[in-house]
């Protein structure tokens, strides 16, 4: 029995071996955990040949689970040429291009795959899944490999959703915010052209963090966040919290184009013109977009898996096709594609267990939301109804209650690290009445 130490993030549940900032979401709130690593050999290990398609946290979670059970006949096929990495960290590449080679950027290091004898195929594309003969055919340039399997996991993620106005545009300089290659494309344009005006379509997590990175990359660049809603993060923040955050963005040079429906994107040489439905327009040299993720379903569809918005799975991540599983951004459970780091991690663990016959139901639980753009922004639980608010400049706290019970909260600034853990606990415990009031009064003293 080996006792190991790891650190788990309070925000996204990511685990890592150091207590620095979370390598996934950037939170500074990590909890030390001790865990026992069993050196057990599964009776199934000699019979199982597992092939996993896709290189993200879902596939890594499957692999970790299988390794713990003594299964090492695993092949991981990654379309990208890089080892699986923290996709949430890609904005750092805009400020520091070599960061994509930094060990902290990768979920696991090369030695992890070598030590556990994982057959990892980087830069390979799956061309065919032969169910009859249980073979996956993958290709890279002129290299072709046939990999046998007894269990197949589709963790192929998703592709950036392209609204009609992007699909109809002829410009190659409209870049999604999704991968290392996208960040390298943006850096390349900055090196080869004069970029003065950048528009970012979509003011969610990715859009906000990219706007932050671009402003830090060049103070001469004007960055405009274009958002269809009438304020920033309407699902995560109250109107008051959203106003505080928008003021921070504006003070740091981020322009906001809110309540804006895009009609078309026109191109005149290297210049792009975004036309809005109200007749207004903005001119820019570069457009980036983050308009959600569309689950990748083509492979699953080709072998008869049931498809809706994603690959339909049950609570054990099983598809309707025998011995074929799906997890992560590509899958749909109970009519929803969750598309976030924490759910992908959980689904991967459930999938790994199901492969070896240990059936643990996947249960979605709402997770906290964290973004850093000039200031930390944190949201958890239900953000509506009665609230108690405390503010000192950009330091902000708003706690939401229902019938005296704490149900959610918004935090901005350094107060996040002081309150977030207790806030999550109070929501989980359904803290109410006098105890809730005393807790909130305690949090107010941190200002």
The CATH architecture of the largest domain can be given as 3-Layer(bba) Sandwich
Number of continuous helical runs = 11
> Given this structure, which CATH class of the largest domain is correct?
Alpha Beta
Rg over C-alpha atoms, rounded to the nearest angstrom? 23 Å
Features of this protein?
rubredoxin-NAD+ reductase activity; FAD/NAD(P)-binding domain; 28 strands; 5-stranded parallel sheet; FAD/NAD-bd_sf; 447 residues; EC 1.18.1.1; alpha/beta; 25% helix; globular
Short description:
The protein has 447 residues and is of the alpha/beta class. It has four domains: 1-39; 43-157 and 310-355, FAD/NAD(P)-binding domain; 162-289, 3-Layer(bba) Sandwich (FAD/NAD(P)-binding domain), CATH 3.50.50; 375-442, 2-Layer Sandwich (Enolase-like, domain 1).
């Amino acid at each position: 029995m080996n006792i190991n130490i790891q650190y788990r993030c309070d925000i996204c549940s990511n685990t890592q071996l150091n207590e620095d900032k979370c390598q996934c979401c950037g939170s500074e709130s990590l909890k030390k955990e001790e865990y026992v690593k069993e050196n057990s050999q599964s009776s199934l290990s000699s019979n199982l040949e597992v092939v996993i398609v896709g290189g993200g946290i879902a596939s890594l979670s499957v692999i970790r689970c299988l390794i713990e059970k003594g299964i090492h006949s695993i092949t991981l096929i990654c379309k990208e040429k890089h080892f699986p990495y923290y996709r949430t960290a890609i904005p750092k590449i805009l400020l520091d291009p070599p960061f994509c080679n930094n060990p902290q950027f990768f979920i696991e290091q090369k030695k992890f795959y070598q030590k556990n004898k994982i057959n990892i195929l980087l830069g390979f594309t799956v061309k065919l899944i032969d169910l009859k003969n249980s073979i996956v055919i993958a290709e890279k340039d002129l290299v072709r490999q046939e990999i046998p399997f007894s269990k197949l996991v589709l963790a192929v993620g998703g592709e950036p959703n392209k609204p009609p106005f992007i699909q109809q545009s002829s410009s190659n300089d409209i870049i999604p915010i999704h991968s290392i290659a996208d960040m390298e494309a943006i850096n390349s344009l900055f090196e080869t052209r004069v970029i003065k005006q950048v528009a970012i379509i979509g003011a969610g997590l990715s859009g906000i963090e990219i706007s932050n990175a671009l402003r830090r990359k060049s103070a001469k660049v004007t960055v405009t966040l274009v958002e269809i809603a009438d304020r920033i993060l309407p699902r995560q923040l109250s109107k008051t919290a959203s106003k505080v955050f928008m003021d921070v963005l504006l003070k740091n040079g981020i322009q906001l184009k809110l309540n804006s429906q895009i009609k078309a994107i026109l191109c005149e040489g290297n210049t792009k013109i975004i036309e809005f439905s109200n007749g207004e327009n903005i001119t820019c040299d570069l457009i980036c977009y983050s308009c959600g993720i569309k689950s990748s379903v083509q492979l699953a569809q080709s072998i008869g898996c049931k498809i809706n918005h994603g690959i339909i799975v049950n609570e054990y991540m099983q598809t309707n096709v025998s011995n074929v599983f799906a997890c992560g951004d590509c899958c749909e459970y109970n009519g929803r594609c969750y598309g976030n780091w924490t759910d992908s991690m959980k689904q991967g663990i459930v999938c790994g267990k199901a492969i070896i016959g240990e059936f643990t139901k996947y249960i979605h639980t709402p997770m906290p939301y964290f973004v850093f753009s000039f200031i930390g922004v944190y949201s958890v639980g239900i953000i509506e109804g009665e609230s108690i608010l405390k503010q000192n400049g950009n330091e902000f706290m708003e706690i939401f209650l229902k019938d005296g019970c704490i149900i959610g909260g918004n935090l901005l600034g350094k107060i996040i690290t002081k309150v977030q853990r207790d806030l999550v606990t109070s929501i989980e415990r359904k803290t109410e009445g006098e105890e809730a009031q005393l807790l909130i009064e305690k949090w107010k003293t941190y200002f």
